[in-house]
Design a protein that fits this description.
- With 461 residues, the protein is mainly α.
- The chain has one domain (2-458).
- It has 19 helices and 5 strands.
- The strands form 2 sheets. A 3-stranded antiparallel sheet has the order 1-2-3. Strands 4-5 form a two-stranded antiparallel sheet.
- Helix 3 (37-48) packs across helix 6 and helix 10 runs antiparallel to helix 11.
- The longest helix has 26 residues, at 140-165.
- The radius of gyration is 23 Å and the shape is globular.
- InterPro entries: DUF2142_membrane.
- The chain crosses the membrane at residues 12-32, 121-138, 145-163, 194-211, 223-250, 262-282, 339-355, 367-388, 400-417, 437-455.
- This is DUF2142 domain-containing protein.
- Keywords: Membrane, Transmembrane, Transmembrane helix.
- Pfam families: DUF2142.
């Protein structure tokens, strides 16, 4: 039995554990107790009716939604309408039972001031299901659970493909995908689930095109997949389009010549920029900017200031960022024991070092991997500094959490990959002889602890 577990393919391990624990997270987490689920269900419902952009009511942007949806969210969301007062609620089965049978009544509507300007793609699958379900006057709470299921299934499919496709670090991808935070978010109504799945997949595709020994030439089908994934990532969350720079890892020998490779790369960048600019143009008039943005931007764009701000942020919030990367759940009020967080990170590094196969990543390719990581870090931190800067706080980056780094985390751990390292020689991890069982057991243990903490938080005895 143990030998069979050691030899099982990682993508199958992921699918089994991800499906079982994903459904458990989905059902046990109370309604609207994952970050911004209220915001995201409004967006998905609006899109289900074919409304991509906010509607106008006088000088305000917003949406018209059924009163029943607003009432349901008000009962379960920890934030009062308007999003100011935070008041976490315990699970109440009587309320859930009542709202599971409360019809939608889509004709009884109110106007809701609403500022979600995300592109529609992350909500498309949820909106499609809501569009059909709403025809049957399905209760809003049932719509929420349907959206969670759709998000979970889509994430499982994309991540399964990523683990199957990548020629290296399959178990690293698996561990990152099955972190408590990743699974919690992916079993909620959050566009981050699609962001993680797509970004993992595009990284895996580039690794496959670069290092798979059976891939001798890049054909039109490969290029079509790369272009499609790049556009999709841009339309989900633009900051993650830096992963397209991994195109530079692909050896020139897999193209007709050097000119063809770089022509394709330039066209890829152009398509990405045009996609982003088109959406920004369409959203003109809906996005509000702060009057202090220019001054704030000038400050953080000074390299010396930026490094100081980044260092102070890490010094102040370093443990918090690690915690929200591995597992601070709920509305960031359910925290895994720090020892589990540190063990998870340590095991990820160990697995990264121990993954030793025939593939060699040279220094130039590692620099190519490092480049999108650095650009992403700079862009993300600048964005949050500008968006949430408040002179009342220390001059640090506010609003930043570790879960935003999950989609690009495979790139960070690729930097530890070394075909010639001693750890890899001793453990011979690529044959699945040592760490597989430990990884599986530790992941299951971490997820069980997470479920216990959720139950303890929301289901007091």
């Amino acid at each position: 039995m143990i030998n069979k577990i050691k030899a099982v393919e990682p993508q199958k391990v992921f699918l089994l554990i991800g499906l079982i624990f994903g459904l458990l997270f989905l059902l046990i987490t109370p309604p609207f107790q994952a970050p911004d689920e209220d915001n995201h269900i409004y967006k998905a419902f609006s899109l289900s009716e074919g409304k991509i952009f906010p509607e106008k009511n006088g000088n305000e942007n917003g949406i018209y939604v059924p009163q029943s949806l607003v009432s349901t969210i008000a009962v379960f969301s920890p934030y009062e309408l308007g999003g100011k007062n935070f008041n976490p609620k315990n699970q109440d089965f009587k309320k859930i039972d009542y709202f599971l049978s409360t019809p939608l009544n889509r004709d009884n509507r109110i106007f809701l001031k609403f500022a979600n300007t995300y592109p529609p793609l992350p909500y498309l699958a949820m909106a499609s299901v809501m569009n059909i379900a709403a025809l049957f006057n399905t209760p809003p709470l049932v719509l929420m659970y349907l959206d969670r299921i759709v998000n979970l299934c889509l994430w499982l499919f994309l991540t399964y493909l990523a683990i199957k496709i990548t020629p290296i670090h399959k178990w690293v991808f698996l561990m990152l995908a099955l972190m408590p935070m990743t699974l919690f978010i992916s079993a909620s109504i959050s566009p981050d689930s699609l962001t993680i799945g797509l970004t993992f997949l595009i990284i895996a595709v580039f690794l496959n095109l670069s290092f798979d020994p059976d891939k001798k030439k890049i054909d039109n089908r490969d290029l079509g997949i790369v272009f499609l994934l790049t556009i999709l990532v841009t339309l989900v969350k633009p900051l993650y389009f830096f992963s397209v720079l991994l195109f530079g890892m692909i050896p020139v020998t897999k193209f007709e010549n050097r000119k063809q490779k770089w022509l394709m790369f330039i066209l890829l960048i152009i398509s990405m920029i045009l996609t982003y600019c088109l959406w920004q143009h369409l959203m003109t008039g809906y996005v509000q900017t702060s009057a202090s943005t220019s001054e704030t931007l000038t400050r953080i764009l000074n390299p010396a200031n930026y490094l100081i701000i980044l260092f102070d942020t890490i010094k102040l919030d370093g443990c918090y960022l690690l915690g929200t990367f591995v597992g601070i759940l709920g509305w960031q009020d359910i925290q895994l024991p720090p020892i589990i967080v540190y063990l998870y990170i340590s095991l990820l590094i160990l697995v990264s070092l121990a993954d030793k196969g025939q593939i060699i990543i040279n220094l130039k390719q590692k620099l190519t991997i490092l480049t999108p990581l650095i650009l992403f870090l700079i862009s993300l931190t600048i964005y949050f500094y500008i968006t949430f800067h408040n002179s009342a706080y220390n001059d640090t980056i506010r609003g930043l959490t570790g879960r935003y780094f999950i989609p690009v985390a495979p790139l960070f751990f690729l930097l530890f990959y070394n075909n010639k390292n001693k750890i890899g020689n001793e453990i011979n991890f690529s044959r699945g002889e040592k760490l597989n069982l430990l990884i599986i057991l530790f992941i299951i243990f971490s997820l069980l602890i997470s479920l216990f903490l959720i139950i303890k938080k929301y289901y007091p005895i």
